[in-house]
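Entry for the shared binder. Reason: the reviewer on the internal report wants the predicted structure included alongside the sequence.
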Amino acid sequence: MTVPHKPPAPLAHDYSLPLPRAITVDDPETLPPTCEPCKTCILSLFAKARSENRPLYIAAPMVRYTRLPFRLLIQRHFAVDVAYTPMMIAREFKNSKYAREADFSTCKLDGPVIAQFGAPNADELIDATEFVKEYVAGVGLNCGCPIKEQNQAGIGAVLMQRIEVVESMVRDAREKFGRSVVLDVKIRIHSDLDRTVDFAKRVAAAGADIITVHGRLHKQRNSVPPNLEAVRRVREAVPREIYVVANGDCFVLADAKKIVEVTGADGVMAARGLLQNPALFAGYENTPWKAVELLWAYAMEYGSPFKNIQYLIVEMTQGLLTKQERADLRLVKNYQQMEEWLDERFIMKRRGEVGFAERDFDGYRR
């Protein structure tokens, strides 16, 4: 598979139109949901991309950050084909309306999106999926999170040592939902790659549609390069109708090309790369200023915890601000202070103003 030199063209936008209202899974006024993009069949997207000899460009599940405003930014404007929610704890999601409202919202422009859950058993995964399955294009099981507290609860990367549990979760979810739910399993690798290949083959046989491979060991830090050979071996081992996604160290579009050439993966997933540059899959070397304007507009419309948006803008402006300026930006305490801080330094257009989201230059006042 080759990666086109020119990524797919961004979607056209009419910024004079009002944005659709947010939808939550417990909102009776939105049942059944009317989200068209969020229900797009991901398997058909993979098949279409394969026929075009290109990978799908995918945004990884990122704790706190792949919420609705950031998903809209990267998918509607910067060539991301599929985005994940942050990992949601299945037990909390099924038991708490507050957790559901805090963890997941969508709208008519959102998607396609995969809701990812951390679950230790099939019952919790199935119960959480019942709430969200009508609002998303797929459901993912996290077998990669290295956080100690989650692992102690039987969630995340600890499942790489519990293949029978993972098999039962995938098999039971497939039996419960049939083909109405696309199932993804996101894994890490073992030091013995034969174990990883066996793990992937058993997950595929249990009923997974997508296997996402983060090419690092459970306790390896991001400073260690991902093992692309592991991804290649998984791709070669599982049937072609099972789509394989490579995760790890995609920071520019050229990285995606290299990853696909080495692994043969059907999709390339980025995490830190998209935080630093949401436009990387659209071919930008650095974040264009219009991405900041768009993120701000979506955050103001749909809401997001201030610290989350602050972190995203600090990350996105690495090529625009000095180290000291970014340190200063981290000190602002609320949306009003951030708005004033940005307006002092940049020409920041708001949605509805002439020139909004049109500029690729740095936006500095001169």
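Summary line for the report: The CA atoms of residues 38 and 175 lie 23 Å apart.
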